[in-house]
């Protein structure tokens, strides 16, 4: 149903794919290993490491489930220029990105071979896991490539108003007339917001005020604690 759609940018979609694959493969296996190690220590009722690992497992599985939902219901919006950038990113993953991951695995295998020659059993065994993680990340990269290609084939391209009017994915420089301050915000879907990076939802008070507006426009932000004005200085 349309109400289930999760609006996001093409960059946000790629980030979610990568995060999903990392925590559903590498992180999940790391936590399972922590749980198994903690269990080997005996009494679980007073085992802080076991409790911590199980808590981490619950949080990780919850995030996996949330990302699965968001990816499945993604409503990706992109301009022609954003699509072109995403296609370039996919080509990088297919070439330089893939080669870098393969080189990292080859380096680990070379180190393990050296450990075997030297009879360093602990180093050899530790590198087993590092090589397994390298394999998973190679697979994760292939997953992201295929999912991005599918999205680029089937996604809807909207008019490229990135430099003319504020839309999803726009970065906007605004001037607060009351406090004589400038801020830069990036407009994203609700699942991509990040206060530390000034990524705000298009449904936020500022987002709703500036969506569709142009450089030079003065807008009124209707915040919970009152109204204030912003001037849009730049859109990029």
Task: Describe the protein's topology.
Elements: E1 6-9, H1 10-39, H2 48-72, E2 74-79, H3 80-118, H4 121-154, E3 156-158, E4 171-176, E5 181-188, E6 199-201, H5 205-210, E7 218-223, E8 226-235
Parallel strand pairs: 1-2, 2-3, 5-6
Antiparallel strand pairs: 4-5, 4-8, 7-8
Helix pairs in contact: 1-2, 1-4, 3-4
Structure description:
This protein is of the alpha/beta class. The protein has two domains: 2-158, Helix Hairpins, CATH 1.10.287; 171-235, Roll (Chitinase A, domain 3). Helices cover 57% and strands 19% of the residues. It has five helices and eight strands; from the N terminus they run E-H-H-E-H-H-E-E-E-E-H-E-E. The chain has a five-stranded mixed sheet with strand order 6-5-4-8-7. Strands 1-2-3 form a three-stranded parallel sheet. Strand 4 (171-176) and strand 5 (181-188) form a beta hairpin. Helix 1 runs antiparallel to helix 2. The two termini are 32 Å apart. The model has no long low-confidence stretch (mean pLDDT 91).
